[in-house]
# Entry
Amino acid sequence: MIWLTWRQMRAQTLWSAGIIAAAAAYLLYLGADIRDAYRLNITDCTTGCDDAVHTLADQFGSGLLLIGLFLLAAPALIGAFWAAPLITRELETGTHRLVWNQSVTRTRWLAVKLVIVGGVSVLFTGALSLLLTWAAGPFDKVVDSRFEPLTFAARDLAPFGYALLAFTLGLVVGVLARKTLVAMAVTLLVFVVFQLLMANVLRPQFAEPVTETIGWDDANTVGHIDSFGIGPQGAGIQEYQIPGAWVVSDYIVVYKGDGTEFTEADLKTCEAQGGTPDDCLIALDATFDVTYQPADRYWDFQWIEFGVAAGLAAVLAGVAFWRIPRGLS
Amino acid sequence: MNTPVLSTNALTKRYGRHTALAEATLDIPAGRIVGLVGPNGAGKSTLLALAAGLIRPTSGRIEVLGRTPAADAAQLADVGFVAQDTPVYAGLTVGDHLKLGEHLNPTWDAAFADGRVRQLGLDLGRKAGRLSGGQKAQLALTIAAAKRPKLLIFDEPVAALDPLARRAFLQNLMEFVAELDVSVILSSHLIGDVERVCDHLVVLAESRVQVAGDIDDLTAAHHRLVGPRGTLDALPDGVQVIAADHTDRQTTLIVHNTTGRPFEHPGADTIGLEDMVLTYLHRAEGLTAPTLEETRA
# Structure
């Protein structure tokens, strides 16, 4: 059975391995490049070091983002091009009626397919993930936004879970749809929808976020205010960033020490006395509430994300193991 | 060898609201070459797929060699199945198929398989997708037989073959059976083929088993009775009328004597296998068989 599985997947595995090897080579080169740049601009930095951080981010940001996107797409492609046809191709050519009548039960046939083809899928995706995590290491350290959705799902453990899920999804969709093209399309669609759902709906709920009240004088030590606006409706922070953490609040209202909202009028009164806006806010004991997932939850979230995907994969595998021995003709 | 190769009780398979096989009850002894005949859509493939364990019954019971079909590797090893259109992996070579058989069957008889392939003149390096229909059928037959099963099942093995390839395939099949001491069930809509190779018959029509038994017993128990109209109304118990055709003066009956005793009746005549089968098929469709006398009197 192992021989047959390998014989059937040989061609696709070899060309996929070629793509993975090329990607790996590029990642090794990129990793070395990023390390050189990091040493040059940051470790050995003497003057204008804040700019160096931006330079590094600008230089490698889009490249790493693209590879991250490729890594997000890889499980979907494996699910659609490897897993979905695994059963449908047999059904379409009728060869399931040949192979299911050898002295190997369908349960064992499926188990070997699942372990070997699924295993190679996870291995390929996982290897890319670990390489990308390594290559992007200095960059991630500098930018310090590991919860960024496109970063989070393309580093460390998360891609392993996605590969498992995409593979079993393709398999089960194939079992249910029985037509290769339909199964491939549905697999792609469902998996992409799942990824969006994971990033936007599930992941924020892995743990109850922390809400913290920050005084204006601490605002730029705890984190970083991206933009602060003030108008007739009141004052608000558009985007607040805390290094390594995942800030959930997107618009943050600023309050004065007496608990009422800081308004344009307050600013005008204050500016008339000759202070900068920051001075005014500090003088009025301005505070704001930030809701966020702390940076030290990163690994918990990675494990949960992996667990959710792996758990769903186990359920899907269960469906396949239940369905296939009952016959598909 | 006392275990029946195929034993079913009220075996039924439904696909949604469509009944593919209804209440089939069969008991096929070992050592037979069974012909399963019936028109297209009669349920032959369904019955064979159930016997091979590819699908499960909606209701009723089926046992093949005393076990649930495809219950485990040992049961699978005992049954060789060649599906309709004799599927093979188009991308794999003939040699790959033999390796497949060897890897997937602990009882694989490599000497037998290699010998067959050599005898058939199949090129081991040739992709199975480039074989002719007859060669594909022969390859599928070789794979099914080389695992040395106790029962070989063929679903319309010759339907897609030209007459020459068909004859060669059936010839080969007969050789296998003699060489391997194996029971065989094969389906066909060609009664001539069945008559040539089989010694046991199951007639399937309209999803139901019409009649089943050893061919010699069946032909001996079926008679055509011709007599003046009104004289054939009283038949002994156990003699069933399968078809009746009346003209103004004369009645023709096809009867099945199920008493087990010889049937003595004035005007009784034996009928051939083909006529018998056709009578059952016509009955299943709710038609009489008016052509029988004209062609076979």
User: Anything to note?
Assistant: The radius of gyration of chain A is 26 Å. Strands of chain A lie at 210-215, 224-231, 234-241, 246-247, 252-255, 287-293.
